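Notes from the pairing session

We agreed to fold both candidates in a single pass and log them together. This is the raw record for the first candidate, unedited. Please don't reformat it; downstream parsing expects exactly this layout.

Candidate A
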Amino acid sequence: MKALKETYKKDKFLHHAYLIEGEYVAALPELKVFFKDALKIEPVGNPDVIVQEMETLTIDNTRALKEMASRKSFSGGKKIFVIGAHFFTREAQNSLLKLFEEPTPDTHFFIITQKGETLLPTLLSRLSRIAITQTDNVEIRTLAEKLLKLSPGERLRDDTIKDIIEEKNKTRATLLLDQFVKALHEKEKVTTKNIRLFEELTKCRGYLNDRAPSVKLILEYTLLVLPQG
């Protein structure tokens, strides 16, 4: 993601279609920061910024995307599409290929998936590829490490997750829980003694995927059950 920021800062050119290779929950927050800081586009509550996540991108999904892309932006400026998917049907890929062969002016796509090699070579040739590196997770990882060093009471009084709670940011909350799990796995093996903790963290992560989860309650509960150190 750093390469995208530096390239745009240098020449102010935005490709019509990008392939972001990495975890959706890691890439989306970084993209939103890029939209807001570099492009001066508000990513939240903006009808010109369409964000969709799905398990499989189908031909019906791409037809809907083509229809939305053909419409004029509400602001008269850029229209942004962020699409996260684990799998892409061949029909959907061919449909995307046609869309990217004749791109709509001021319309930009950011396709997020873990492995770009699963896509058709012809589609890949139309995409500007960007890999998510470990440095893209530094902020969340640092936050997770800091909170783990505190006692449960100190965590609840700490205001470092205030922004995540106030924005009801499910993406960053999910990423934070992932970092907690990763940190705990690195520190100790999963045993019958602590397996319940990992099960609780998995449940909390699942609750964040509900339609309208309480990010505040889920994070506060997580901070209470996590061990110190």
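Candidate B (folded immediately after A)
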Amino acid sequence: EFGAVLKEGLGEDFGNRDRLAKLLRFASTQSDAVAVSLADYKARMKEGQEAIYYVTADTLAAAKNSPHLEVFRKKGIEVLLLSERIDEWVVSHLNEFEGKQLQSVAKGELDLGKLADEEDKKEQEKDAGEYKDLVEKIKKALGEGVKEVRTTTRLTESPACLVSEQFGMGGNLERLLKAAGQKVPVSKPILEINPRHPLLQRLKYEAEGQRFDDWCHVLFDQALLSEGGQLEDPASFVKRLNQLMLVLDSGKAS
């Protein structure tokens, strides 16, 4: 396929990288068709936008429904949807286009810069303070399973999501390499929680103990599933979820 040849060329023909980059086409949150060029995207960027945003996933549906896109949808910021395996190769060799950095929406601490209004910033600072104790309790419950837990700037609807460090290996690339039989350095994801979600508001007042730990693990596993990951222990996830559902059901009955 011609598109795949172009993408392979980015890493092999450095001298013509910029020319090749202009020929690339992607799907985006504004177009399901793989027809959006980087120049198209740049021309549509909002005033004050500093980066070209993208998300990678196994399928177009998974990319389109990624929880990492929620704040971008809310603000009307276009995001490129990269769902072909070779796209991970593309973004590893193409760091910028015509002066604009390419930025994964699932890496690092999201900073929208001029696109984030003062009200957003104040709410995020307030959330970070009010949920500091819960963040520490969740980190304790998940232990070595996570590198960090923090309140999110990405989510508007989902309770939680997983992100990678800014210069770390993304979850999708890690899964692709493992599927290809390659050894992958051990990395721990960062769990971001959405304090505006009813589940987190309820969890804030849940006493530490087995049920609290179960909620935390279900929260983590749901975040992993929502980005296209696979659970290491699906049976434990189902068991925890069923137990929590029974508790909720008995509470309604009483």
